[in-house]
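Q: I'm writing up a methods section and want to include an example of the input and output format. Could you take the sequence below and give the corresponding predicted structure tokens, formatted cleanly so I can copy it straight into the document?
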Amino acid sequence: MAERTKDIWNDDDGAGRAEKGSGRLRRFAVFALALAAVLGVVLAAAYRDGTGFDALRRYLNYGSSAGSGEERYRYDASPDSRFAVLGDQLVVLSGNSLRLLNRDGGETWSAQVKMAAPALCQGGGRVAAYDIGGRSLYVLDQRGEVLHLETEEDETLISATLNARGVLAVTAERPNAKGAVYAYSEDMSRVVFDMTSGERFVTEARVSDDGNTLAAVRLGQENGVFVSSVVLYDLREAGKKEPFADYSIPNGLVLAAGEQEGNLVTVSDTCVTSASYSGRVKAGYDCGGDYLRSYSLGDEFTALLLNRYQAGNVGRLVTLDAEGAELGSLEIHEEVRGLSAAGRYLAVLYTDRLVVYNESLQVYASLRGITGVSGALMRPDGSALLISSESASQFLP
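A: Here is the clean output for your methods example:
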């Protein structure tokens, strides 16, 4: 029988295993150093301008390559299509279909609709799709339908909003009244507020992000001039329909209402107004006689495109904080085709390029040589979707 021995001090197999182990340790050390270097750069950028964490989010979500990617979403061309970002998915609404497209280009959910004037709004991880002047409304989250509403035949929709928690508020026409406002619970299971206005037309309503207050925008006339007023209702007392406060926005037609840093912010054709939910106007920004050509009311700031004249492209781009103070201003002497604010970023689509600015209107990233792009949607992480007639691709700074 052969002799079997094992010298633990002179074992060639053991030496091989030791070499393999040390190789793994070296590879791990190299990986750890590379990861530390990447994190160091990200943290330095985050400390410098606050955008480094967004770069890390983009790296984890989409990969490391920057620039304009492949066509991620495809859909049928329609002149009345509306688009909204829902996480990493895209909502596409036209007069005959509503689709939720996932990041792989597939379809998460869809429905056939019939809308003459399709519109979208979003908030709290949800999107509401509705027909202005019609009766159909859908609320979607990233899994699909949350609510489908068909109003009464004599109660047509005017507007819909979603707050930061996805709470829905709806304004509609109502017989023998100037309008109606109703709001749903957060789980969309019931109506928690229903009010009919008999004095002034109601154009929009929104529930505060904490869920305690409903703000309704009413439109009237005083001395032949349009006057908008904001009326506030307490939602903490069930069944209460009398307002506890209101304030006026003279010489202006309110176009949109939102919330920034706990302030109720309204954009009108002449000014931006910031108020508390107690009804106290804190501050505002006067457009100074310039013509409001476009705007984007984000969760953190507001962007305005103001023209010096009714026609032409001579004007300025302005960003405002939650209290109406100017964050940045940029002279514009070319056509701007779209604005989209999200997070701390603003996407501005020019004729030949897309520029992503920060809230102070410093250039964060840009993409030139774009063709066939009709719109852009900003994401809170600093990436953007480029919208064309039949497809959408993402831009990663």
